[in-house]
Amino acid sequence: MNYVPVPYDPELEEGLAAFLAAVEVVPLRADTIVRNREHFAELIPPMEVIVGDRPVQWWDVDVPGPEGAPDVTLTVVRPKGGPKPGAAAIYEIHGGGMVLGTRFFGVEGLIQSAIEHGTVGVAVEYRLAPEHPAPAQAEDCYAGLVWTAEHAKELGFDPSRLLVSGFSAGGGLTAAVAIMARDRQGPTVAGLYMGAPMIDDRNTSVSSRQYDGIGAWDRNNNDTAWTAILGERRGSADVLPHEVPARAADLSGLPPAFVEVGAAEVFRDEAVEFATRVWATGGQAELHVWAGGYHGFSGSSDAPVAHAAQAAKLSWLQRILDV
Known about the structure:
Strand order of the largest sheet: 1-2-4-3-5-6-7-8
Distance between the termini: 47 Å
Strand content: 15-25%
CATH superfamily: Alpha/Beta hydrolase fold, catalytic domain
Number of strands: 8
Radius of gyration: 18 Å
Structural class: alpha/beta
């Protein structure tokens, strides 16, 4: 079958070219994971540089990790002077295919939200594959979420207004920790932001085949990452729901989710299927498939569709968290 890709929005093409030139310099393959990590490390400055003189306070804290595993490092970001009573909180899980990146990938959004909406932000550092295969990533993220919820008073937020958020691999891990919290009677979460979520190891959807060798985070990158995460178990029945959320037999009882994805990217079909399966259980999901959008378009372009995506996300956050 000839898989013809959905064309990109013409106004996004410049942003896509810039993203590829800056970020995807080396194709992600098993033997280039370390090189890609080194490149990403050059792109992300230290936290004090990211914050600059903006009116926020921040600190790192090491919290208990999963049983038998190392502690998990969190970075907390709050408005300068502390949050107001009853503040909302965002627990941020970074992207990078679970093989790349650090907690500082998503920290800019936490800084902006602290300034604009008075929220408390928590970014989690989880172990990466292949050195630490699944479920290390989800277990670390869950351990950090449990600590965050248990220390709501100390951190200065209302535990009933805690959102879990992530993009790409972070979006998949957001679904994973929600499934874990449901199954383990863990923290109550107000909502899930799942941006272009990486949630299916099989990599066989139409959209994954349309973007094979094309665009940002193509099918080959996705293939490399899932193999690193799951090894020989990949594609088998021996995979846990919180390792691969698309494999969960039951998606009932999850918090309200905001699922967004570009129409012109690998993760389109699995994102749509996830939202559809949530609806089938009577659950709440708000799904946006943005015409001509590539992976990460809303954060790397000034095109009208990027502004529309940002506005839709803000509208949902205002409704879920009343910020």
